[in-house]
Amino acid sequence: MSENKKLPILDLSRSFKEIHSEVSEAVERVLSSQAFILGPEVRNFEKHVESYLELQENGAIGCASGSDALLLALMALDLKPGDEVITTPFTFFATASAVTRLGARPVFVDVDLETYNIDLDQALSKINSKTKVFLPVHLFGQTVPIEKIYDELKSRNIKIVEDAAQSFGAWRKVNDKILRDGVMGDIGCYSFFPTKNLGGCGDGGMVVTRDENLAARLRRLRVHGEGSTYYHEEVGLNSRLDAIQAAILDIKLKYLEKWNKQRRELAANYKNLFDNYDLNDFIKAPVELENNYHIYHQYVVRVSERRDGLMKFLEENNFTTRVYYPLCLHLQHCFEFLGGKPGDCPNAEKLTQEVLALPIFPGLMSDEQERLVGKIKEFFK
């Protein structure tokens, strides 16, 4: 890439070149069939996801978005007004909005500064008689070690809904067994938004479960609660996955492991560059929890000082960075009714002032990384 051309935070065109012909054929196949909603393309993709995640038949249910996946999951668990859901304040908005849309109350728990994920000990301390669901987020592609509190949650009849929107393909090894994100709890929720590691050419999502009764209900809820055509068992959503999205996602699924491995190699290269450029006093690389297979949906560092100044300097030098996330959910204006205030989640609030996402995507070149890190060194020198 020319030094005068801006390096984006994400360039989907590089990996698309690898699959262009396959995608074109798949789209043409769907157009020729004129079957655009659900149908065989969606079921075919669902089957391949079931195989990838080692789920039973019909355990994967495609839907319209990751946000809908969360909402469908909570609906299937009969979340009602007055119920409480323990979750993190350091995540994308949809995690909490799905809870409040059903009249329930998100209970925000602080995060771990090293992994950016929810603090499990604090989560346990928030459980009371109103707690219905524990909703962890595997943020930026890093798995939450749910097994540490799994038995305790089950003993209290608390359901586990995993927000795995950013972590399709991530896993954790527990007792020599690989547990993939999204299938450790009762229901897992994925997003196939184009920027995700497994992303379509528009919106899309999926819910997965090992519970056959939950799976049947989720499949019904995504089509207005319809049991058979025009006969409705309950009020659901219009949340169906498009056939074109499913066909494209099915192709990309074949490349996912390769692309995730590339992301891990790029992450390791960033860490080496920080060492080589003597930047560890200024930049803290993300920490991969022991036994985790981090897939680096985002490569988010912590900048100890002058984060915003660095971001501006890099932009002026043709390197795009982003802040995920600039304001915790418990401090968002729309959630004022929950009574959150500054200081409630000090670690999460600290992260909003320090985190900075650097470019990471399949096709990113090591020399581009080196030029970026060189500019970071120039800023701090």
Mean pLDDT: 97
Low-confidence stretches: none
Strand content: 5-15%
What is the 3D shape?
globular
Topology:
Layout: H1 12-33, H2 39-53, E1 60-63, H3 66-76, E2 84-87, H4 94-101, E3 105-108, H5 120-125, E4 131-135, H6 147-155, E5 159-163, E6 171-174, E7 177-180, E8 187-191, E9 205-208, H7 212-221, E10 226-228, E11 231-232, H8 243-276, E12 283-284, E13 292-293, E14 299-303, H9 307-316, H10 346-354, E15 355-358, H11 366-380
Helix pairs in contact: 1-8, 2-8, 3-4, 3-7, 8-11
Describe it for me?
By secondary structure, the protein is α/β, with parallel strands linked by helices. The protein has eleven helices and 15 strands. A seven-stranded mixed β-sheet has the order 1-9-8-5-4-2-3, with helices on both faces. Strands 7-6-13 form a three-stranded antiparallel β-sheet, with no helix packed on it. Helix 1 (12-33) runs antiparallel to helix 8 (243-276), helix 2 runs parallel beside helix 8 (243-276) and helix 3 runs parallel beside helix 4. The radius of gyration is 21 Å and the shape is globular. The chain starts with 11 loop residues before the first helix and ends with a helix. The model has no long low-confidence stretch (mean pLDDT 97).
Keywords:
381 residues, alpha/beta, Aspartate Aminotransferase, domain 2, Aspartate Aminotransferase, domain 1, 2 domains, 7-stranded mixed beta sheet, 3-stranded antiparallel beta sheet, 11 helices, 39% helix, globular
Overview in brief:
Helix content is about 40%, strand content about 15%.
